[in-house]
From TrEMBL:
Domain Pyridoxamine 5'-phosphate oxidase Alr4036 family FMN-binding, chain residue ranges per copy: 5-97
Record lineage: Bacteria, Pseudomonadati, Pseudomonadota, Gammaproteobacteria, Alteromonadales
Protein name, UniProt field: Pyridoxamine 5'-phosphate oxidase-related, FMN-binding
Pfam families: Pyridox_oxase_2
Highest taxon above the source species: Bacteria
GO terms, molecular function: FMN binding
Length: 190
Protein backbone atom coordinates (compact mmCIF):
# COMPACT_ATOMS: atom_id res chain seq x y z
CA UNK A 1 0.00 0.00 0.00
CA UNK A 2 1.51 3.31 -1.04
CA UNK A 3 1.32 6.02 1.57
CA UNK A 4 1.11 9.72 0.84
CA UNK A 5 4.39 11.55 0.93
CA UNK A 6 5.29 15.05 2.08
CA UNK A 7 6.27 15.80 -1.52
CA UNK A 8 2.61 15.59 -2.53
CA UNK A 9 1.70 18.38 -0.13
CA UNK A 10 4.53 20.54 -1.47
CA UNK A 11 3.60 19.72 -5.07
CA UNK A 12 -0.09 20.60 -4.67
CA UNK A 13 0.82 23.84 -2.90
CA UNK A 14 3.09 24.78 -5.83
CA UNK A 15 0.45 23.82 -8.38
CA UNK A 16 -2.17 25.94 -6.58
CA UNK A 17 0.21 28.92 -6.39
CA UNK A 18 0.60 28.79 -10.18
CA UNK A 19 -2.94 27.88 -11.26
CA UNK A 20 -3.53 31.27 -12.93
CA UNK A 21 -0.34 30.98 -14.99
CA UNK A 22 -1.17 28.87 -18.10
CA UNK A 23 2.49 28.06 -18.83
CA UNK A 24 2.73 26.37 -15.44
CA UNK A 25 0.83 23.38 -16.80
CA UNK A 26 3.79 22.52 -19.05
CA UNK A 27 6.49 20.08 -18.02
CA UNK A 28 9.35 18.33 -19.77
CA UNK A 29 9.40 14.57 -20.32
CA UNK A 30 12.71 12.84 -21.01
CA UNK A 31 12.95 9.43 -22.67
CA UNK A 32 15.78 7.39 -24.23
CA UNK A 33 15.89 6.07 -27.80
CA UNK A 34 17.18 2.68 -28.97
CA UNK A 35 20.73 4.09 -29.26
CA UNK A 36 20.70 5.30 -25.65
CA UNK A 37 20.35 8.95 -26.65
CA UNK A 38 18.14 11.11 -24.42
CA UNK A 39 15.20 13.07 -25.83
CA UNK A 40 13.31 15.75 -23.96
CA UNK A 41 10.10 17.48 -24.95
CA UNK A 42 7.38 19.64 -23.43
CA UNK A 43 3.97 18.16 -22.58
CA UNK A 44 0.86 19.43 -20.85
CA UNK A 45 0.01 18.11 -17.40
CA UNK A 46 -3.40 16.38 -17.61
CA UNK A 47 -3.95 15.22 -14.07
CA UNK A 48 -2.66 13.27 -11.14
CA UNK A 49 -3.90 10.24 -9.22
CA UNK A 50 -2.68 10.99 -5.72
CA UNK A 51 -3.53 7.56 -4.30
CA UNK A 52 -1.57 5.68 -6.96
CA UNK A 53 1.25 8.21 -7.52
CA UNK A 54 0.37 8.47 -11.20
CA UNK A 55 0.75 11.48 -13.48
CA UNK A 56 -1.41 11.70 -16.61
CA UNK A 57 -0.17 13.04 -19.94
CA UNK A 58 -1.43 12.77 -23.53
CA UNK A 59 0.37 12.17 -26.80
CA UNK A 60 -0.13 11.13 -30.40
CA UNK A 61 0.67 7.51 -31.27
CA UNK A 62 2.63 8.75 -34.29
CA UNK A 63 5.12 10.73 -32.17
CA UNK A 64 8.75 9.68 -31.67
CA UNK A 65 8.29 9.29 -27.94
CA UNK A 66 5.97 6.34 -28.50
CA UNK A 67 8.65 4.27 -30.26
CA UNK A 68 11.11 5.27 -27.53
CA UNK A 69 8.73 4.26 -24.74
CA UNK A 70 8.11 0.89 -26.39
CA UNK A 71 11.84 0.17 -26.10
CA UNK A 72 12.59 1.86 -22.74
CA UNK A 73 9.57 2.73 -20.64
CA UNK A 74 11.58 4.48 -17.93
CA UNK A 75 11.21 8.26 -18.06
CA UNK A 76 11.56 11.41 -16.05
CA UNK A 77 9.32 14.47 -15.99
CA UNK A 78 10.84 17.78 -14.90
CA UNK A 79 8.61 20.64 -13.82
CA UNK A 80 9.75 24.11 -12.81
CA UNK A 81 7.47 26.56 -11.02
CA UNK A 82 8.81 30.08 -11.64
CA UNK A 83 6.88 32.00 -8.99
CA UNK A 84 7.95 29.78 -6.09
CA UNK A 85 11.28 28.83 -7.72
CA UNK A 86 10.75 25.12 -7.19
CA UNK A 87 11.68 22.18 -9.38
CA UNK A 88 10.16 18.71 -9.22
CA UNK A 89 11.65 15.73 -11.06
CA UNK A 90 9.35 12.72 -11.23
CA UNK A 91 10.92 9.38 -12.24
CA UNK A 92 9.28 6.07 -12.95
CA UNK A 93 7.96 3.94 -15.75
CA UNK A 94 5.41 5.04 -18.33
CA UNK A 95 2.34 3.02 -19.22
CA UNK A 96 0.84 3.99 -22.57
CA UNK A 97 -2.80 3.22 -23.25
CA UNK A 98 -3.79 3.39 -26.89
CA UNK A 99 -6.62 2.09 -29.04
CA UNK A 100 -6.21 -1.60 -28.36
CA UNK A 101 -3.07 -2.08 -26.32
CA UNK A 102 -1.33 -1.09 -23.15
CA UNK A 103 2.45 -0.92 -23.00
CA UNK A 104 4.53 -0.78 -19.85
CA UNK A 105 2.11 -1.69 -17.09
CA UNK A 106 5.22 -2.61 -15.13
CA UNK A 107 8.87 -1.65 -15.43
CA UNK A 108 9.35 -4.49 -17.92
CA UNK A 109 7.87 -3.04 -21.09
CA UNK A 110 5.30 -5.54 -22.29
CA UNK A 111 2.37 -5.11 -24.62
CA UNK A 112 -0.96 -6.37 -23.36
CA UNK A 113 -4.59 -5.93 -24.22
CA UNK A 114 -6.10 -2.93 -22.47
CA UNK A 115 -8.21 -3.61 -19.44
CA UNK A 116 -11.75 -2.17 -19.44
CA UNK A 117 -10.67 0.14 -16.60
CA UNK A 118 -7.75 1.48 -18.66
CA UNK A 119 -10.02 2.06 -21.67
CA UNK A 120 -12.55 3.91 -19.48
CA UNK A 121 -9.79 6.15 -18.16
CA UNK A 122 -8.59 6.85 -21.71
CA UNK A 123 -12.16 7.64 -22.80
CA UNK A 124 -12.60 10.05 -19.88
CA UNK A 125 -9.41 11.89 -20.85
CA UNK A 126 -10.55 11.99 -24.50
CA UNK A 127 -13.93 13.41 -23.57
CA UNK A 128 -12.33 16.09 -21.37
CA UNK A 129 -10.35 17.49 -24.32
CA UNK A 130 -11.55 20.58 -26.15
CA UNK A 131 -12.98 20.13 -29.65
CA UNK A 132 -9.87 21.79 -31.10
CA UNK A 133 -7.57 19.31 -29.35
CA UNK A 134 -9.66 16.33 -30.45
CA UNK A 135 -9.45 17.64 -34.04
CA UNK A 136 -5.65 17.60 -33.81
CA UNK A 137 -5.85 13.79 -33.75
CA UNK A 138 -8.27 13.60 -36.69
CA UNK A 139 -10.91 15.93 -38.09
CA UNK A 140 -13.70 13.37 -38.11
CA UNK A 141 -13.51 12.52 -34.44
CA UNK A 142 -16.20 10.86 -32.36
CA UNK A 143 -16.49 12.13 -28.78
CA UNK A 144 -17.75 8.70 -27.69
CA UNK A 145 -14.69 6.88 -29.10
CA UNK A 146 -11.09 8.12 -28.79
CA UNK A 147 -9.17 8.50 -32.02
CA UNK A 148 -6.83 5.59 -32.72
CA UNK A 149 -3.83 7.94 -32.42
CA UNK A 150 -4.83 9.34 -29.02
CA UNK A 151 -2.64 7.85 -26.27
CA UNK A 152 -2.99 8.29 -22.53
CA UNK A 153 0.41 8.19 -20.84
CA UNK A 154 0.58 7.28 -17.16
CA UNK A 155 3.84 8.00 -15.38
CA UNK A 156 4.00 5.59 -12.42
CA UNK A 157 6.11 7.66 -10.04
CA UNK A 158 8.69 5.86 -7.90
CA UNK A 159 11.14 8.72 -7.26
CA UNK A 160 10.72 12.46 -6.75
CA UNK A 161 13.52 14.97 -6.54
CA UNK A 162 12.43 18.31 -5.05
CA UNK A 163 14.56 21.44 -5.30
CA UNK A 164 13.65 24.80 -3.76
CA UNK A 165 15.83 27.66 -4.99
CA UNK A 166 14.33 30.43 -2.84
CA UNK A 167 14.77 31.54 -0.17
CA UNK A 168 18.41 30.78 0.49
CA UNK A 169 19.80 28.35 1.40
CA UNK A 170 18.58 26.06 -1.35
CA UNK A 171 16.74 22.95 -0.25
CA UNK A 172 16.84 19.61 -2.04
CA UNK A 173 15.07 16.45 -0.91
CA UNK A 174 14.91 13.12 -2.74
CA UNK A 175 11.95 10.83 -2.15
CA UNK A 176 11.68 7.20 -3.24
CA UNK A 177 9.33 4.28 -2.76
CA UNK A 178 10.99 1.52 -0.75
CA UNK A 179 10.39 -2.23 -1.14
CA UNK A 180 7.32 -1.97 1.13
CA UNK A 181 5.98 0.87 -1.06
CA UNK A 182 6.45 3.48 1.65
CA UNK A 183 7.91 6.85 0.74
CA UNK A 184 11.36 7.57 2.15
CA UNK A 185 12.93 11.04 2.17
CA UNK A 186 16.60 11.99 2.12
CA UNK A 187 18.17 15.45 2.13
CA UNK A 188 20.51 16.00 -0.77
CA UNK A 189 23.07 18.59 -1.81
CA UNK A 190 21.58 21.09 -4.30
Amino acid sequence: MQHHSPWQTIFYRSLAAHEKIPASRYLQLATVDNHGHPHCRTLVFRGFNQDKNQMYLHTDNRSEKMSQLEIHNRAEACWYFSETREQFRFSGHVESISDKKSIGQSEQSKTTNCSPEAQRLRLTHWQNLSDALRESYGQNYDIAKPDENFVLLILHITRVDYLRLAPLPHLRVSYHLDASENWQAKSAVP
